[in-house]
User: Fold Glutamyl-tRNA reductase from Virgisporangium ochraceum.
Amino acid sequence: MNVLVVGISHRTADVGVLERVTLAPGELPTVLARLLAQPYVREALVVSTCNRVEVYAVVASFHGGLSDVGTVLAERAGVQVSELADRLYAHYGTDAVRHAYRVAAGLDSMVVGESQILGQMRDAYTAAAELGVAGRMLHELAQQALRVGKRVHAETGIDRAGQSVVSAALDLGLAGEPAAGKKALVLGAGAMGALALATLHRAGVTDLLVSNRTAAKAVHLAATHGATAAPVDDLPALLGEVDIVVSATASPGRVITSVPERIAPLLILDLAVPHDVDRSVADHPAVTLIDIDRLRSGGATAGAADVALAEDIVSAEVDAFVAWHRGSDVAPTVAALRTRADEVVTAELRRLGSRATGLTDAQRAEVAKSMHRIVQRLLHEPTVRVRQRAAEPGGEQYANLLRELFDLPEPLDVPGALEAGPE
Assistant:
């Protein structure tokens, strides 16, 4: 078993393709179940954001796992695998661990250093764990990736430029003009909507509206951010009253298809995948439309020194994870060796009991204690050494050697050594 990441992101595809693969929250259980139904997939979690969809899976083989995951993603997009293949990327073994850590650290984000991805990865793991499709390997990978992401943000200055996607889009759209004094409308009451309200408030926007298909959610979100809830049916009129619109809904269709003919300059930030705003809206002379495609080429970047330090942290943490993984591989074999030793001692004690009938219960107990102590002492140093050696490159050979020397059974479900590339 090994870790495989298969994904599609802002780096490999335009929004038109991304929005066909992106999952709405309610679709995640079905997709995870579909992944686990594939012959080579043993564990899975899916990270789906406005600019990436990635499947993290534990698979029985690289090629089989890649085919399985690619099939599910293609089904989701409604295309043949061959049509999607050029837009997919894959990381396997050690490379998959490195990719997970870089994503969590914000190094692979559209806005380098942004920290929103940490929450999105945490949500992806939580959902997979609750559905019972993330096992030991993905649990460890997810927990370590989240820790590494936090460490990078704490020990480097990467988030000085690591704005949220909302901040980057707002800066790009305003082009230096202050946001203070403007009136803004946020469409959507999910995580991105909450982030948009917080970002706008920090930017000095005090006249804030929020609208959502479920009115109760809009009221709740507005109350927590000092905003006013507005009925979604009032959207056409609201577009003529505000200066900024941030649209981040989970709607499968377009939310804004037109704007009033006579409006003041209007900045629309379409941060949804699929698009919330029809492209024709940008033809209105008073509208400035910033979407994910536009943001991709205009986002902020972190300083080279901060990025280099972050990459160094990631590399060291990857090495530590690989060492842990190699060491964990030998654990079932060591346990099997100790079990075999206990079986031998038990058999010998039974044989001794049938012959030495004159021994008292106390004497029998002392003999048993001594025999167990001798065996444990004999095994202690070799098992400590084999764990140490197993954590080194090529360490899987030590577990193999133990099994061969002592005729131990093969572990039933051991992930296997992490590799740098395909099998």
